[in-house]
Design goal:
By secondary structure, the protein is mostly helical. The protein contains five helices and three strands, in the order βααβαααβ. It starts with a strand and ends in a 7-residue tail after the last strand.
Length: 119
């Protein structure tokens, strides 16, 4: 089982208290479930995507009331790898956790954020 969390649930994110709390709950739920089902051979891990370069992010940036290019540029500069994540970056992490190669990995939380959050 692979859940989708957020680094906001690991380190907090202003002004996203409800979102951070919900994602923190997802991470804690996944860790607890991982302990409960481990003896049955089931693994449970969480992937926490960083800022994604998706149409939804572009729409958010456009609606921010600021220059969308400046919003996206600021987010990109904050990422040590100097790019936003792509859906396939997150998909690769999910596919790994769902594969036999991750058969001895459970209860883990993986940031896929280009180094933005190293928690």
């Amino acid at each position: 089982m692979v859940t989708i969390g957020s680094d906001a649930g690991r380190v907090g994110s202003s002004p996203e208290a409800v979102y951070s709390g919900a994602k923190g709950g997802t991470i804690a739920f996944s860790k607890t479930l991982a302990r409960e089902v481990a003896t049955k051979g089931v693994t449970v891990n969480t992937v926490c995507p960083g800022p994604p370069d998706t149409p939804a992010l572009r729409k958010f940036a456009d609606a921010s009331g600021q220059d969308a290019d400046k919003v996206i540029g600021g987010m990109t500069r904050a990422v040590p790898m100097k790019r936003l994540g792509l859906p396939e970056d997150v998909a690769a992490a999910v596919a790994f956790f769902a594969s036999d190669a991750a058969g001895y990995i459970t209860g883990q939380t993986l940031s896929v954020s280009g180094g933005l959050t190293m928690a």
